[in-house]
Design brief:
Blueprint lengths: L6 E12 L2 E13 L4 E5 L6 H8 L7 E10 L2 E2 L5 H7 L4 E4 L3 H4 L6 H11 L6 H14 L5 H4 L9 H13 L5 E5 L7 H18 L2 E6 L2 H7 L2 E6 L2 E7 H6 L4 H12 L49 E2 L6 E2 L5 H12 L1
Parallel strand pairs: 3-8, 3-9, 6-7, 7-8
Antiparallel strand pairs: 1-2, 1-4, 4-5, 9-10, 10-12, 11-12
Helix pairs in contact: 4-5, 4-7, 5-7, 7-8, 11-12
Bound molecules: iron/sulfur cluster (SF4).
Length: about 350
């Protein structure tokens, strides 16, 4: 029996009005996630992954020209929720962490003050000593050594990795059901990156929260996620399990990403920037497949590539959804040849 998803995003589209025209940042995106699972959303810069994530907490409101579709959290549509409801959700049921821990922490307050305040917002009437006890326990849980001494220090007194641990402590202090992590380890060196990912996984095992991990790094996806949505030009072009993405990718863009990763030297491992060409302008999306200018299969007699936007469809003998006009069985045959 299929379990009900904790979060279900359906046909989400987000457009921004700019002096140069309408930016079609997210186009008809759908996905869902269950409790205890980790979904990776992967793509290059400007693929729409961060706007998709921000939409879940309505963080784009105010500058958004329009948002359509629905975002159901525990069955309620977040997009239709008022500000009060959204404030209740933020930090208590759904928490978000970003790439730069410094920008998430206030330099003028001690880390303890910031964690305690985050706790008090959703625990009105709690006494300070009790909140401090909870904050100390949380700091211990995220691996801050000697938290009794360090709770009264300021953000600049911590290393980048330790600061991200503090951001995670602040995000998790109210035991959210969903953590959205937008490039949480990109600013950290590889060793610290692995520690932070391990920490997130450990906490997930303990509390069963779902994680949406936004990343441009396929190495991070491989190590952390259960399922993955590959975004390109504001759309999901492939949706699959992590295992299938790495063994049987079914979209030419995914082939490119995996080929790029395999051809890179160690220092650049995981970068997605080696596919020839540039991502499309979200101001002027092409009428057909937006990957066409970079697709090595586009000139192979597929006239639909230039005129019809491909829909996500199930690829036979896999569990993958792929948005490509190539015959789906042909996609599978191409996999091995084009990755070697
Ligand atoms: Fe390439 Fe055409 Fe498939 Fe787009 S639809 S990925 S251009 S083969």
């Amino acid at each position: 029996m299929e379990s009900t998803p904790l979060l279900s995003v359906n046909n989400l589209s987000v457009e921004f009005s700019t002096p140069d025209g309408i930016v079609h940042a997210v186009n008809d995106v759908s996905f869902s996630i269950e409790a205890g699972k980790t979904l990776g959303i992967v793509g290059e810069s400007g693929s729409g992954k961060s706007v998709t994530a921000s939409s879940i907490l309505k963080l784009n409101s105010g500058v958004t020209a329009s948002t359509s579709g629905s975002i159901l959290f525990k069955g309620d549509n977040i997009l239709g929720a008022d500000d009060k409801k959204i404030r209740q959700l933020r930090g208590s049921e759904i928490a978000m962490i970003f790439q730069d821990p410094l920008s998430a922490l206030n330099p003028y307050y001690t880390v303890g003050h910031q964690i305690i305040e985050a706790y008090k917002v959703h625990h009105r009437g709690v006494k300070k000593p009790e909140a401090r006890k909870v904050a100390l326990e949380m700091l211990r849980r995220v691996g801050i050594p000697n938290p009794e001494a360090r709770i009264d220090e300021f953000p600049h007194q911590f290393s980048g990795g330790m600061r991200q641990r503090i951001v995670i402590a602040t995000a998790l202090i109210n035991s959210p059901k969903l953590l959205i992590a937008d490039e949480p380890t990109t600013a950290l060196d590889v060793t610290v990156q692995a520690q932070i990912l391990d920490l997130m996984k450990d906490i997930q095992k303990e509390n069963g929260m779902a994680i949406i991990l936004i990343t441009h790094d396929l190495g991070v996806v491989a190590e952390t996620c259960d399922d993955v949505a590959v975004m390109y030009g504001g759309r999901i072009v492939e949706k699959t399990s992590v295992n299938e993405l790495f063994t049987t990718p079914t979209h030419p863009y995914s082939f490119g990403l995996l080929g790029a990763v395999r051809s890179l030297d160690k220092s650049a491992r995981g970068s997605l920037r080696t596919i020839a060409g540039a991502p499309p302008s979200l101001l002027h999306l092409p009428s057909g497949c937006s990957f066409m200018p970079r697709c090595v299969f586009a000139n192979d007699g597929h006239s639909k590539c230039s005129s019809i936007v491909p829909e996500l469809e199930l690829v036979p003998s896999t569990h993958s959804l792929s948005a490509c006009h190539l015959r789906k069985d042909a996609l599978l045959k191409l996999t091995t040849k084009d990755l070697l």
